[in-house]
Fold Protocatechuate 4,5-dioxygenase beta chain.
Amino acid sequence: MAHIIGGIGIAHTPSMGMEYDRGRANGFDSRWGPWFEGLSPVRQWLERIRPTQLIVVYNDHLNHFDFDAYPTLAIGISSRFEQADEGWGRRPWPDMPGNPSFAIPLAEYLVRQSEFDLTVCQSLALDHGVYSWFPCLFDLPWKIPVTPIAVNMVRHPLPTSQRLARLGAEIRAAVQASDAGERVLVIATGGMSHQISGARFGISNQEFDQRFLKALPSEMDALMAIPQEDYMRYGGTEAAELSLWFAMRAALSPDAMPVYDHYTCPQITGCGVLAMTEPQFEQQSTKEQK
Ligand SMILES: [Fe+2]
């Protein structure tokens, strides 16, 4: 049986990726340094819990899909996922590994048992929704297979927070139904407060973001009761991406515990991370290391 051993919620922005590359070469500047330095405990935790599969719930930003056909939910099933060129060229990072042997049964369960209509993508170019933070958490060579699940956060109507929580719960059921002995980490990524267009361009709401980070582990229902329109009102239109984080929390058990969170707002987007663990697997991995 496969197990979900923990989860991560993390923000993404194009500038996060660019600043990471620049900072690795020349040192991080004073705005971005605290964000990258604050990710170190997550890296250390990942080394301790040793996931063998990553399910990444993210959103594309018109870099793979376009308005001709924008799926509400899609899953990537491939042995490699390339980086999308977002208009300024690809950053110097390799493709990410995938594992169809893990992803195909997951898709079969989600479509046939859970009745989630996922568009199956045999190729899926991943944009900054994944590539902006992934190199900050995982050292090269990237060996842990990634199964990306793309959620429409661009074209309205958007899937509701409740539906994304159900998706997370069904991911949990699908993993538990698997007889593969995998240690699965569920990562959900969505920008925190920000708005990249219109009269409110550049707004952020740090208090709102920090309340979300602290409340998600134990008060998800209260956060889901806030309409997505209010997330946009309080945190900018793109703050609706926070609803992806519900998929991560709902993929974990009620007993899951926060192990670390960190927040900064380097430029125009709130950057936060939350790592949560399933206590039984945290103890197990600690014991195995002794
Ligand atoms: Fe985004």
The mean pLDDT is 93. The pocket of fe (ii) ion is lined by residues 12, 59, 61, 129, 191, 238, 241 (CB under 6 Å). The two ends are 24 Å apart (CA to CA).
